[in-house]
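Protein: Exonuclease domain-containing protein
Species: Circinella minor
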Amino acid sequence: MLTLYIYIYIYRHSINKWLQSENTSKPLIIQTNNSFIRRLVHQELQDGKYNGYLTGRLRDTKHMSIHKLSEEERSANMRVDNVQTELNFRRVIELINQTKCPVIVHNGYLDILHTIDQFWQYLPSSVIEFKNIANEMWSRTVDTKYLAEFHPHLKKCFNSTVLGSLYNTVSTELLEAEVSLKIADGYDRYSQDEDAQHEAGYDAFMTGSIFIGFARFILESEAKKLEREKSTKIKSGKEKNMDESDSDNESIATTLSEDGQVAKDTPDPSPFGAEILTSYYNRIFVARCDIPYIDLVNEEQMPVIEVPNRFYMTNVPEGITVSGIETLYPELRPMSVHWINTSTAWLIVKHDNRIELAKEGILGEERVKPFLRGQTRQYEGEALHITPDAAKIELFGFERWRTKPEFQTNGLQNADVKEAQGNKSVNEDNNGSGEISSSTESDDSDNDNDEQPEKLNNDNTTPSSPRRVDQESIMAAIGESYIPVGGNAYDDLGIPLPPSFRRGLKRKATNDEEKED
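Structure follows.
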């Protein structure tokens, strides 16, 4: 460390002496034996006391030359530094937002999540916060997957909404309509190489092309539809106050003129601002979900669906396995169980002819009794962790679950909080502390305790993710403040540690405790 200070002192003294001389037109030559010393010199030259007038250049492997810049050279150098400092992807995001240009994605739910997490801020714990952040980042986002699946003019047009398939269909339609899309210079390979799919640039080109084709088709279809409606009203003699009642529709219909170009008299020069399009903006497709999209601006409209093979199961005792549930409901096999939390789950009957065999209500003692101590199937019951509490398991059909308010989101959250409070009280009785220990955290810890049996799904996996309870909500419910855990480098910058790092922290804490023991 002393040697380092000596180096810095020598370089500073040499630079100050050179600047005070009258010979600064000639560069100052200093000895730099390695890359570490060269870096020290560069850092010194960037100090504010030199006001950007000094720059260092490599002379050979052992020496550097320091030059004093003229006013013109300094100004040019400062402009380059500013561009390099500001030009990052976050700056690109901000510029896109300033232009109010629609951001086009295809099945882009995960893309938006990763963009926020990597370039904007850490992902929040609630959907509402996520929507606010996404709108702050980009105010107009369009998902071509959602348009293809749900827009009334498009949803019956395609057998497949996969990106490549949509692009092939739309590009053919555009070609027949003599609409050409020019690729930027230097990217001609994209117009010739079909193997370029799944490259980021080419996928972006396909997505943009699809949206242009969609917008053109939707606007033309809407114009034709409104023209037919207008003709029908005229023929039936029911045309009254057309200028007032149809003013909004006519604005859309006149967006395109007869030759397919943007009409000159439209208030919005961009066809992408038509209401028939913008009303479907900010809706992102979500696969394998009861609500098949997420609306970044408004609340999603829950579609009324009928799922007769899905049953809501409550009062499931701690420790019982999926095989145990299958044994208690043999008439419903084969089935799958999807955990909501430690005491509730969805039971899915896989064969339609067995749905009618499902009896809603409490399981009852008669079904559980053979598996209890002293009964004929005692050992089987012990292996499957079937206890007397299993008699309280209650089954509800999907329609009954959907119409009961206590089974909706708030009810489930309250159940999770009660469960957390119960776990806290158990721990306080056992070890006198207020530490929360819940089986919902089993996937984040290296707990090898064999005394606590794990519930297994039908694929022999632990139901960890669906049963996770948000730590902050639990802390708030039991009256304790929640303090985000930070790490070394993040503490220095005042940034909370990302949730994905918590597993490593827990392992490190466990290892440290073992070392102390």
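Remarks: The radius of gyration is 33 Å.
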